[in-house]
């Protein structure tokens, strides 16, 4: 069987069975690269770059594509025909003023379709930097039309699972950060959601997460736009905002800024809604609130929100069904230990009955212990 060259290990030249990717972005057969490293070679065999981190990450996407290819019984090497995207040609068309916006959108639609139905057909182009090129089109202001930006971002998100996320370091550049803020301000729902997904991926996978996180947190207009997104009636939109806020608040310096632009009110509004389809998002929102309550400013904001304490009380037993009530109990503990007003508000909101119900539920031992302490604290002031 003729093996497509991008399905072969660069060392053994055999079909990849257990592909792993190094920090340089190159993929090898695990056993082959392990033997290479075991002999004392601390460079990438293909790029010849020094490996500061010899970590090997399983390339599940490529493994899946190879499995699909084998199942289809291919016997011919995939040729670089019309189905294989030429990055040079694509870049030229996207940047050309002679190519109509409609034709550019059609080409982007074809990429989106291929990434969904036949990712194997453009995998080589992805390896060569298609994802990076799409990011440059968005942040390089090649085309100001928001339809073009939206379509390009949608394609980038489709390619994200197959791509090297180090390309997202582009967001650290000052001009690109300014562009990011502008798109959040002017973009539609799809654009904002896509930008949130890029932010979360960048902050969770970048080797320079700390620097990028600080840079993003210093952009007050950006934080404000993301917090406003949490208020959105659309569940997908508000959930994307919560993921972004949670990622940004992983750095201490961003917490103060987030509270300043209204994150507490946004999160309280989210958990107060009568119906939530994603319990995991409610849990993430609650965990973020608990984390932020280490700040006096966050406590003040929550206590002065008419629904703040009431919303936490409702979460106490409501979240016990899936074992995620701990953040609600802990948040109330933080507030009630320091504030007589918080204790009054919690008791008026029915926290005592909620805690008693919680103690009879299947929640964890640590949560029951904290609930018992909170119950004793509240009853001692009655």
Explain this structure.
- There is one protein chain.
- This protein has helices at 30-38, 60-71, 87-95, 101-117, 123-127, 130-139, 146-159, 174-186, 189-205, 209-217, 220-230, 235-248, 252-260, 263-272, 279-292, 296-303, 308-318, 326-338, 340-348, 351-359, 365-379; strands spanning 19-21, 27-29, 57-58.
- By secondary structure, the chain is an all-alpha fold.
- Among the domains are: 1-78, Herpes Virus-1 (2-Layer Sandwich); 79-163, no CATH class.
- Helix 14 (263-272) crosses helix 17 (308-318) and helix 20 packs antiparallel against helix 21.
- Mean pLDDT is 82; it is low at 74-84.
- This is U-box domain-containing protein.
- It is an enzyme of class 2 (transferase).
- It comes from Daucus carota subsp. sativus (Carrot).
Give the termini distance in whole angstroms.
Answer: 80 Å
Order of helices and strands: EEHEHHHHHHHHHHHHHHHHHHHH
The major β-sheet equals:
3 strands, antiparallel
Oligomeric state of the chains present here: single chain
Helix content: 55-70%
Unreliable runs, pLDDT <50, ≥5 residues? Answer: 74-84
- Based on CA atoms alone, the radius of gyration comes out at 25 Å
């Amino acid at each position: 069987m003729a093996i497509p060259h991008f399905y072969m290990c660069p060392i053994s030249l055999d079909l990849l069975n257990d592909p792993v990717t190094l920090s340089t972005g190159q993929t090898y057969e695990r056993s082959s690269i392990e033997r290479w490293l075991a002999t004392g070679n601390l460079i990438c065999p293909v790029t010849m770059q020094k490996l500061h981190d010899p970590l090997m990450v399983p390339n599940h996407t490529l493994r899946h594509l190879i499995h699909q290819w084998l199942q289809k019984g291919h016997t011919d090497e995939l040729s670089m025909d019309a189905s294989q995207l030429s990055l040079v040609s694509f870049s030229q068309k996207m940047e050309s003023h002679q190519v109509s916006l409609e034709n550019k959108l059609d080409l982007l639609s074809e990429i989106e379709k291929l990434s969904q139905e036949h990712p194997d057909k453009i995998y080589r182009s992805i390896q060569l930097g298609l994802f990076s090129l799409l990011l440059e089109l968005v942040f390089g202001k090649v085309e100001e039309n928001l339809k073009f930006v939206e379509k390009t971002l949608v394609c980038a998100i489709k390619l994200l699972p197959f791509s090297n996320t180090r390309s997202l370091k582009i967001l650290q550049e000052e001009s690109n950060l300014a562009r990011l803020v502008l798109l959040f301000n002017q973009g539609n729902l799809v654009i904002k959601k896509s930008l949130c997904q890029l932010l979360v991926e960048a902050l969770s996978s970048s080797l320079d997460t700390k620097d990028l996180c600080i840079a993003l947190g210093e952009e007050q207009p950006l934080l404000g736009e993301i917090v406003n997104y949490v208020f959105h009636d659309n569940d997908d939109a508000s959930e994307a905002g919560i993921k972004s806020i949670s990622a940004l608040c992983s750095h201490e310096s961003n917490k103060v800024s987030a509270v300043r632009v209204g994150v507490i009110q946004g999160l309280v509004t989210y958990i107060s809604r009568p119906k939530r389809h994603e319990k995991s998002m409610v849990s993430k929102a609650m965990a973020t609130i608990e984390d932020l309550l280490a700040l006096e400013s966050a406590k003040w904001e929550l206590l002065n929100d008419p629904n703040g304490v009431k919303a936490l009380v409702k979460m106490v037993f409501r979240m016990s069904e899936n074992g995620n009530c701990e953040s609600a109990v802990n948040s109330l503990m933080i507030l009630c230990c320091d504030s007589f007003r918080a204790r009054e508000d919690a008791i008026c909101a029915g926290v005592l009955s909620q805690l008693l119900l919680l103690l009879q539920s299947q929640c964890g031992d640590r949560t029951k212990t904290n609930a018992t302490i909170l119950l004793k604290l509240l009853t001692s002031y009655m």
